[in-house]
TrEMBL record:
Pfam families per UniProt: TPR_2
UniProt repeat feature TPR, residue ranges: 170-203
Species assigned in the record: Pitta sordida
Protein name: TTC12 protein
Key words, A-Z: Repeat, TPR repeat
Gene Ontology BP annotations: axonemal dynein complex assembly; sperm axoneme assembly
One term under GO cellular component: cytoplasm
Primary gene name: Ttc12
Length: 701
């Protein structure tokens, strides 16, 4: 924590003086001049006696002091100096270690600063200062981060501490001048810049730029104060808006003047009355009429002043469009605005991107606003721009994904993204492969959005045909096999859903990767998140038909036993995926049939599934049973059960899915062939007629 009050500052100065005194005494004690040694010993005794005059037991202290001189003289030739030297070395080593840690934390802070994560940067610099309190660079770097988040008083405090470490630190004077300027302390700001010239006259150009900015800010503040005084004098908000708009729109004003006016307007617009006044006074023509504003908004590279103007303009647009459908419509009807929104999103300047996303959110969060957006924008390009924000570690990523989630419901958006634009697929595969480095909550959302787009056959085919996309999904699943955070688990869950959608396609890449995909899913069956387990079973049920090798590998991996375990646990969706997986494995694999007979004694699980309400599960349970009845003893084990009655009911039933009647009839026929004693029960139930009528389903298949 920084020292702020006068008492703490006085304590610090006293401490520094005592350090100087001790240093001087040590130099005297180690001197080769005997007179200097005697003088230092006497002074040391005197200081110790002074310390003993406090509230502590004086007798004990004085007893120790009386023998100090002789003890120092007796031991001075060896032990005392050795202790001093050892202490000095230990402190030097401590400082070296602390400096290494401080430097490492400084670099971490610098990385966070470059990414725009100023809060993390401040935290790292503060941790560095805990290791080394007199490291000037940490104070100035933290001051610069404080400036970014508008904590100007804290920035000034850090600059003051940097100057205690190094009185000639130009960066400290420069940043302190900036902070004072932001606070409106123009005199103090000017003094800081003058100090820079006193230290280094070669910095004249830097100082001139700073002073010019200072003068412009003074002028801006003066203009704002004049306008504020007019409002305070009784001018209504309507009058202020009517006066400010022509002044801002008029050509010839500098950027600072325009920024100040725009900020004032944003502050004045608080409800629909001011919003209407803004519109009726042609407020949306600012970008069209003022060349300075247009240049700042459209510039490829922006100065700090132009960045500030853009941010102010975006805040104004937010104020006039919030809850006002007509204003939203008029803003997007301005061609310059409509054209610049994607450019502002792509600017790479966090402040501009943040406010642009906030403005777009006003449109995306309601149906009428979404209609306006999809009507005026190249949505394929927007998909790529917004998805790139997943790389951001701050709130921009979440804002961008919220907008995409809103837009994905619009038919026009889906239509424009039926074929992904060229840059989207490489970006998406890169995000999949970088799951640990990006914003994981946003990545999970992005995967879900792409999965929704796969409802379009063209998009699904495009993604399913990308080997890089599949490899990215597999890499993401690999990371999820180890202990992962809840946010990363959401990414795994979303990736499995995407893979299920893509597996509706069939191609050579899926066949090539089927073994790898099924292997990852088998590993995920032991995951603690039941949702992930269910989706992993779903992926298995869709990927295994693509490759006999994948079926063979899955059976060797114990997939049958695991499916029986999950089927016993229940759950409609899990049951649907699990029984489908068993059907695929037992269709052509004798080992799978034998494994099922061992794991499901007397087919108790399959018989229970035949009684459920889900037709898809019932049909697959009947099919799976029929595929296992060729095993020795399988049909015989069912004699004590009511399997004939159950199968007859399904074979002669009126299920909407004819596969239920067909598979039940096939199972019943194979049951009677494998174990003729079942025929008696069939005749008793008049099942031959029912079975005969069901043959039409078998023949049609």
């Amino acid at each position: 924590a920084m020292l702020q009050d006068e008492d703490t500052e006085a304590d610090f100065q006293r401490f520094l003086r005592r350090v100087d005194d001790v240093t001087r005494l040590l130099q005297g004690l180690s001197s080769t001049d005997s007179a200097a040694q005697e003088k230092a010993v006497a002074e040391a005794e005197e200081k110790l006696q002074d310390e003993g005059r406090g509230t502590v037991n004086r007798t004990v202290i004085n007893t120790q002091v009386r023998g100090l001189s002789s003890a120092i003289r007796a031991d001075f030739g060896g032990g005392f100096l050795a202790v001093l030297e050892k202490d000095a070395k230990e402190r030097a080593e401590r400082r070296r270690r602390n400096e290494q840690m401080a430097n490492a934390l400084k670099e971490q802070g610098n990385d966070a600063f470059r990414r725009g994560d100023y809060s993390l940067a401040i935290q790292r610099y503060s941790e560095g200062l805990q290791q080394l309190r007199d490291k000037q660079e940490l104070f100035t770097n933290r001051a610069q981060a404080y400036l970014k988040i508008q904590e100007y008083e804290k920035a000034i405090g850090d600059c003051e501490w940097a100057l205690k470490c190094n009185r000639k630190c130009i960066k400290a004077h420069f940043l302190m001048g900036k902070a004072h300027l932001a606070l409106g302390h123009f005199t103090e700001s000017r003094q800081c810049y003058e100090k820079i010239l006193q230290i280094d006259p070669q910095k004249e150009n830097l100082v001139q730029d700073c002073v010019s900015e200072l003068r412009l800010e003074e002028k801006r503040v003066k203009d704002e104060e004049e306008a504020a005084k007019a409002v305070e004098a009784g001018a209504a908000a309507a009058l202020a808006i009517q006066e400010l708009l022509p002044r801002i729109a008029a050509p010839g004003h500098d950027l600072l003047h325009c920024t100040g006016g725009i900020r004032m307007l944003a502050g004045l617009v608080k409800d629909c009355t001011e919003q209407t006044l803004f519109r009726t006074n042609n407020g949306f023509s600012i970008l069209r009429d003022n060349e300075a504003v247009a240049r700042a908004v459209c510039a490829e590279r922006r100065s700090p002043a132009e960045v500030e103007l853009c941010v102010s303009l975006l805040l104004l647009w937010q104020a006039v469009c919030a809850g006002n459908e007509e204003n939203r419509r008029l803003l997007l009807s301005e061609l310059a605005v409509s054209a610049q929104l994607p450019e502002l999103l792509s600017s790479g300047i966090p402040e501009i991107q943040k406010e642009t996303l906030a403005l777009i959110s006003l449109y995306s969060e309601n149906e009428s606003g979404r209609k306006l957006l999809v009507r005026h924008q190249d949505l394929g390009r927007w998909l790529q721009i917004l998805m790139a924000f997943v790389k951001c570690t701050d709130a921009r990523a979440g804002s961008a994904m919220n907008i995409l989630s809103d837009l994905i419901a619009e038919e026009r958006f889906k239509a424009q993204c039926r074929v992904l634009p060229p840059g989207v697929l490489p970006l998406f595969t890169q995000l999949l492969a970088s799951g640990r480095q990006v914003n994981q909550a946003a990545l999970a959302c992005a995967i879900g959005i792409v999965g929704s787009l796969c409802a379009e056959p063209g998009t699904r085919e495009q993604l399913a045909g990308s080997r890089e996309c599949w490899q990215g999904c597999l890499e993401l699943l690999d990371e999820g096999l180890d202990g992962s955070t809840p946010r990363y688990q959401e990414c795994v869950f979303a990736a499995l859903g995407l893979m299920m959608n893509l597996l509706l396609e069939s191609n050579g890449i899926i066949q090539d990767l089927a073994v790898a995909i099924s292997g990852r899913c088998l590993a995920l069956l032991s995951h603690q998140d039941g949702r992930i387990v269910t989706r992993a079973i779903g992926v298995l049920s869709r990927v295994l038909p693509a490759s006999p090798s994948a079926v063979e590998a899955a059976v060797k991996g114990g997939v049958v036993r695991k499916m029986v375990k999950f089927l016993k646990a229940g759950g409609q969706l899990t049951a649907r995926y699990g029984i489908n997986t068993l059907c695929i494995c037992t269709r052509s694999c004798r080992q799978a049939q034998e494994d099922l007979l061992k794991a499901d004694k007397r087919f108790a699980v399959l018989l229970e599934l035949l009684e459920c309400q889900d037709e898809l599960t019932v049909g697959n349970a009947a099919l799976c049973l029929s595929q296992c009845l060729g095993l020795p003893g399988a049909a015989t084990s069912l004699l004590p059960s009511d399997v004939v009655q159950v199968l007859l009911r399904h074979a002669g039933g009126d299920a909407a899915r004819t596969a239920v009647q067909r598979n039940a009839a096939i199972a019943l026929g194979r049951l009677c062939v494998a174990e003729p004693r079942h025929i008696h029960q069939l005749r008793k139930l008049n099942g031959l007629a029912i079975l005969s009528s069901s043959m039409k389903y078998v023949q049609s298949s």
